[in-house]
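#lab-general

N.A. 3:47 PM
ok so I finally got the sequence cleaned up, no stray characters, all 270 residues accounted for. can someone with queue access submit it? mine expired

B.Y. 3:52 PM
send it over

N.A. 3:53 PM
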Amino acid sequence: MRSLYTFTDQMGHTITLPQLPQRIVSLVPSQTELLFDLGLQDRLVGLTKFCIHPTEKVKQKTVIGGTKNFKLEVIDALQPDLIIGNKEENYEEGIAQLQGKYPVWMSDIYTLEDALQMITQIGRLTGTEAKAEELVQGIASGFKNLQPLRPAIPTAYFIWRKPYMAVGSDNFIDYMLQRCGFHNVFADLSRYPEVSPEQLQIAAPTLILLSSEPYPFQDKHFAEFQEICPKAVIKVVDGEMFSWYGSRLLKAPEYLQNLIEEVVKDSVPH
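B.Y. 4:20 PM
back already:
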């Protein structure tokens, strides 16, 4: 039995755990998948309705609402001894209410380094350090081999339609775009700006990436973007590969490398 352990999360909050947590609630999809991959299936008791991986296993857990609207009474009934959340994906008021009752560990992620630190720290929190280290090594090695586009090409990445919302700066997707050699044409705007067709036309990206989430962009949306930017290459991309910062990062380098190669091929004049 270990004695009291104190941990500081990525937002600078300190939590104290008297023992290894046995009843964990996860408020973030990518971190939920990580907990399963760390072998914590039996200790994970609650998750959000957006926690979709691993498909069969999440169905066996209690849903505590969405990432921005927790059902506090459901969480109370689960009697968690650790709650894991994220600054961007969760809402301040709900987190504050939970922090008044439970140890809540928060991640705050902008870069791959932040993501790897989160995985390491959740490993320590839950006593799964060896597995966490194995994941970190695998992810780091994959990204080390990722060959970005040179020179970088002007890119717009869209996450929403009606209104159009793109990815600006100060977020993990922007980091991933840079890592691939996709120069974000809206990096001078913060977070997730609304973008008008005129702004897109002026930004003149040579590549437009339409994310599969949160808005489910499909090939049928190409025409409206092609009309605004006739010369741009347009692609629907797997949003999870750009925005999930847990163990799914093991799969991201191969996916991103293939995407980079496709973009190179499609950008060559025929």
